[in-house]
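Bench notes, afternoon.
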Amino acid sequence: MDVVNDVHKVFLNQSGIVGEMDASIRAVVVMAAIFAVSQLGALAMVSSALGEEYQAFEDPNDPMIPVYYVIAIVLFTFIILYIIKKKRENVVKFIFLGAVGFTIFYVILIMALLFDTGILALLVSVGLAAVLIYYLVKKPEWYVVDATGMLVAVGTIGILGISLNILPVLILLIVLAAYDAISVYGTKHMVTLADGVTQMKLPILLVIPKKRGYSYLSQKPLKQQLDEGGEREAMFMGLGDVIIPGILVASAFYYLSDETVMGVSGSLLVALGALVGGLVGFALLMRFVLKGNPQAGLPLLNGGTVLGYVLTYLLVFQDLSLGISTPW
C-alpha cells in the first residue's frame, strides 16, 4: 500500500511538472509571435509611412552613430539605477512614461497622417496616447503593458531601421550583444534594472502570463522570485530584445535593392531571412530561459538575426558586399 501511495505521489508531481512545462511552452510561443509581429509591423510601417523626412540621423552610413548610441544607453542605464537606489522611483516612472507617451504619439501621428493631414490626425494621436498613458498610470495590467510595448517596438524599429544603414546596424547589434552579456552575467546590473522596472510596471518589459487570472499588479519582484524558486506565473522579455534585432530587419528592407527574385523583392526576402534567423536565436534562447535563470537575450537574438541576414543576402544577391555601403 505504501508503494502504491508513493507511486501516486510521484505521478502527481510529474503531472505538475508537465503542466508547468506546457504553460511555459505556450508562453514561449506567444512571446515568439510578439517578436515576429512587432518586426513585421515595423516593415509595414516602413513600406507605407516612413521616408527620409523621418530619419533620426543626418548620415545613416556614419559608423560612429552606434558607438554614441551605446554610450548614451550605458549612461542612461546607470542614471536610472542611481535614481532607483535613491528611492526616487517616481522620477524614473515620470521619465519613462514621458518617453513612452511621446513615442506612442509620434508613431500614431505618422500612421494617422496617411489618412488625414489636418487637425484630425493630431487629435487622434493625442487622444490614443493619452488613453494608453492613463491606463499605464492607473491600471498597468500585463495586457496594457504589452500593447503599449508592441506599439513602441513597431515605431522604434521602423524609425531606427530607416535611420541607420547596414554597416552601422551591424556594429550596433554586435556591440549591444556584448554589452548585454556583460550586464547580465558580469555586473548583473541589468537584472537589478529589470527588477526595478517590474515593480514600477513600466512598458519596457513584455509580460506573458502562464496562467489564467494572472495579474501583473500583484507580481512579486523578480529578485524575490529568483530567491524563492518555485513556479513562476509569467515570463518576461525586455523590449530591447525585440527592438534591437528588428532594426537590422527594417534596415535591410529599406536600404537593400528592390531587385526581384522569383517575383519577390530582394530586400523583403533578406529582411524576412533576418527575421527568421532572429526566431532561431529566440528558440535557442528559450532553451536556457526555461531552466529558470535570467539570460542575456541579445547575444543569441542578434547573432541569429545577423546570421539569417548574411545567409539570405548571399542566396538572394550572390555577392560578398552584404549590402554594406562604406562611408569612406
